[in-house]
UniProtKB/TrEMBL annotation:
Domain of life of the source: Bacteria
Residues of the signal peptide: none
SUPFAM superfamilies, sorted: Six-hairpin glycosidases
Pfam family name, one: MGH1-like_GH
InterPro entries: 6-hairpin_glycosidase_sf, 6hp_glycosidase-like_sf, Glyco_hydro_37, MGH1-like_GH
All copies of domain Mannosylglycerate hydrolase MGH1-like glycoside hydrolase, residue ranges: 306-590
UniProt cross-references to PANTHER family, sorted A to Z: TREHALASE
Protein name listed in UniProt: Alpha,alpha-trehalase
Naturally occurring in which organism (per UniProt): Flavihumibacter fluminis
Length: 628
């Protein structure tokens, strides 16, 4: 997904099906969400420096103020909470899923502070340690209030603050003396000179030594959990961190979710945004060791199936989204893989009907002469440029050279290109959904899905170019082959739709071809010998973790285990190179192996985007399976 957002943002209603109306306290999914949405954590999408207690909604926000002084006169005064987006730079450290320990470094206006938090149940502590202080006075501010219009009373009491929610109360006080500081805040706060470590207790009062002891205890507990991964620790830590820091609570949905990143949440209005395939793939990744978060992501994105029967490209707060287009159909794969691991049939029952609606939507809306093509429905048909872009958004590969100069068919609202990647994923979707239907004893649906898979698998074979040794996209208006090569051309492997001989040629002649996709850093989003590869702009040559992961999924269906392992190994090396250098988990990577290059001024790559960790997830799976 890119910042190329449709010019027209349309308000539409999401069809919350009966299956999702079962949100009573007895339903396993509602129980799971209740368990997730509890305790102290960085639930507030607005800031990782906001620590919130759920289900009460009590928030303790950590802020900083700088004062530039000349003699006895203030020259400048600024406070980070005054601005949106927030101006500070955060370097993330450890973050336990349950919030029992968090650590980050805050850089802002010449100051550097280490912020650690820990909790042991109902109470929480904060330890803020100055690492570098500016010459002017630097203040720490602790603001306390209630989020999301939830009920509670917060007021000053002596030198601290008391918060009361129903029959519970918390004392908020510090190890350092407070100072008088007048800030434009609407809730009670405490201010301190920030020239030495300061401890804040929320709950029972604690001394600085007691706060340090609890922080150390919870840090060691978190690190002991990492130790079991041995030399895979950093790979796991990158994956776990990007999920934990991006995990939020949304009051409107009454759900915990892990959107792609907090930056993207801010870009879409400051609440949340759920992208289609991003969220499904992150759900699979979270399923490595966090079943609850994995289920939350796949269920919440499946809930977005709309009145037209599709999972939209994106849905954000207040029911804004993209009713004109969907995105790559990977939902059934994610649900079935999670079921294979955890064996909760209720997950299949909860999602099947909606996933089936989506599966039926594709042939009705994206079929041209038996082939599937990307499209869009909402843009006026005489606006070909925006129609083409909407179809490119639906592919998930927003500016891929594969779609350069491909015309948009105004009659059926589709690109005039039979798309191998879409057809491979759709056939796989049919087969995964048929497997789910078998588990649910839905025999009629099994027959329907198998017939649909067979129909499109036969059509896909017409896109096999035997001279070239690869499935190729083909123009539906002229019948011309497209030789612009992307990893999506390997997606038929995911569906098991290629013969073994075809798969062998695809891998040996193209995947392992260093002129096209192979090399030290893999897999570029357009072949290295394509003229657009040098652009290194988004989907024009950069490396994207979801492409690597989906190709890896395909390789596992065939007897090419060594190639799959090598792909996972190379992908992991790319993740670790950037993680160790910058603690970044990037949305995409320069094909030189770098998330960002110093000379790239406006590169489009969020530096903490959860699906970037799919690069390491493959390697964790490999080692879990092979024991390497």
């Amino acid at each position: 997904m890119s910042r190329f957002v449709s010019i027209l943002v349309i308000l539409f209603l999401i069809d919350y099906a009966d299956a999702f109306a079962q949100q009573n306290s007895l339903h396993p999914y509602r129980q799971l969400q209740t368990q997730l949405a509890s305790g102290w954590n960085t639930w507030n999408t607005k800031s990782v420096l906001s620590h919130v207690k759920l289900p009460e909604g009590l928030a303790v926000n950590i802020g900083f103020k700088n004062n530039v002084i000349s003699g006895n006169r203030y020259l400048q005064e600024s406070y980070i909470s005054e601005k949106d987006p927030r101006p500070e730079q955060i370097v993330p450290g450890h973050h336990a899923y349950d919030g029992s320990y968090t650590e980050c470094t805050v850089l802002w206006e010449g100051a550097e502070s280490k912020v650690e938090t820990a909790h042991d149940g109902n109470g929480m502590v904060i330890l803020v340690t100055p690492v570098r202080t500016p010459q002017y006075k630097h203040h720490l501010v602790i603001e306390v209030g209630m989020l999301w219009n939830m009920k509670g009373v917060v007021q000053h009491a002596g030198k601290g603050i008391v918060a009361k929610v129903e029959n519970q109360s918390w004392q908020i006080q510090s190890s350092a003396p407070t100072i008088e500081d007048h800030l434009p805040l609407s809730s009670p706060y405490l201010a301190f000179y920030h020239d030495k470590p300061i401890g804040v207790s929320v709950g029972k009062p604690r001394t600085l030594d007691q706060i340090r002891a609890l922080v150390l205890k919870q840090r060691l507990a978190f690190e002991s959990g990492l130790a079991k991964f041995g030399n895979l620790k950093e790979t796991y830590l990158a994956q776990q961190s990007v999920l934990a820091w991006n995990m939020i609570y949304d009051k409107q949905r009454n759900a915990v979710i892990a959107p792609v990143s907090r930056v993207w949440n801010s870009f879409f209005g400051g609440h949340y945004v759920l992208f289609d395939w991003d969220t499904y793939l992150s759900g699979m990744m979270a399923g490595f060791d966090n079943k609850a978060l994995a289920y939350a992501n796949v269920v919440e994105v499946t809930k977005t199936v709309d009145q037209w029967g599709m999972v939209p490209n994106y849905v954000s707060a207040h029911r804004y989204g993209s009713p004109d287009r969907s995105q790559p159909p990977v939902g059934s794969m994610a649900v079935y893989e999670l079921y294979q691991k955890y064996k909760d049939k209720w997950l299949l029952e909860l999602t099947f009907d909606q996933l089936l609606k989506w599966n039926r939507w594709w042939p009705k809306n994206r079929d041209t002469d038996g082939f599937l093509c990307w499209g869009t429905n909402a843009i006026p048909p005489d606006d070909a440029a925006h129609s083409w872009q909407g179809a490119a958004y639906e592919s998930g590969l927003d500016n891929s050279p594969m779609y350069d100069k491909v015309p948009f068919n105004k009659q059926n609202s589709q690109m005039a290109l039979a798309d191998v990647g879409l057809m491979g994923l759709f056939i796989a979707d049919c087969k995964y959904l048929a497997a789910i239907a078998r588990e649910l004893n839905k025999t009629a649906e099994v027959r329907e899905l198998e017939a649909r898979a067979g129909k499109y698998q036969a059509a896909l074979q017409k896109l096999w170019n035997n001279d070239f040794g690869l499935f190729l996209n083909k123009r539906t208006d002229t019948g011309e082959w497209s030789y612009r090569l992307s990893p999506t051309l390997f997606f038929p492997l995911i569906a098991g739709a290629a013969t073994e001989e075809q798969a062998r040629r695809m891998i040996n002649e193209h995947l392992l071809n260093e002129q096209e996709f192979w090399g030290e850093w893999v897999l570029p989003s357009i072949a290295r010998n394509d003229a657009a590869f040098k652009d290194q702009d988004y989907w024009r040559g950069r490396i994207w973790a979801p492409l690597n992961f989906l190709v890896y999924q395909g390789l596992k269906k065939y007897p090419f285990k060594e190639v799959a392992h090598s792909l996972a190994e190379k992908s992991n090396a790319l993740l670790l190179k950037n993680w160790q250098e910058s603690k970044g988990v990037f949305e995409n990577y320069h094909a030189s192996g770098i998330g960002r290059l110093p000379e790239e001024v406006q590169v489009r790559s969020d530096n903490f985007y959860h699906w970037g960790a799919l690069l390491g997830y493959m390697y964790l799976l490999e080692n879990e399976v092979t024991g390497f």
